[in-house]
Design goal:
- With 78 residues, the protein is an alpha+beta fold.
- The chain has one domain.
- A two-stranded antiparallel ribbon has the order 1-2.
- A hairpin with a 6-residue loop joins strand 1 and strand 2.
- It is flat.
Length: 78
């Protein structure tokens, strides 16, 4: 029988922050499809990491998502 109390990890659970900072399960497939290239960017709003290629990273950095994420973390944006 499956212990259903362990299927969801809520804020306050010791594994919650660890789960947010873990690499996504599909990152190796993503890297394989992109000639071994993969970086991880944190989604604004959730902080979940997602794999991205260099073009997506450039869009993330210069398109405002990075600044939005820094604002969420209370980091000064210059």
């Amino acid at each position: 029988m499956i212990d259903r109390s362990q299927l969801l990890i809520y804020p306050g659970d010791p594994e919650f922050d660890l789960t947010l900072t873990a690499f996504p399960p599909n990152w190796r497939d993503f890297a394989y499809r992109n000639s071994g290239e993969a970086v991880f960017i944190a989604e604004p709003g959730s902080g979940l990491l997602r794999p991205a290629n260099s073009q997506e990273l450039t869009e993330y950095l210069h398109g405002g998502e990075y600044d939005e994420r820094l604002h969420e973390l209370d980091v000064a944006v210059e």
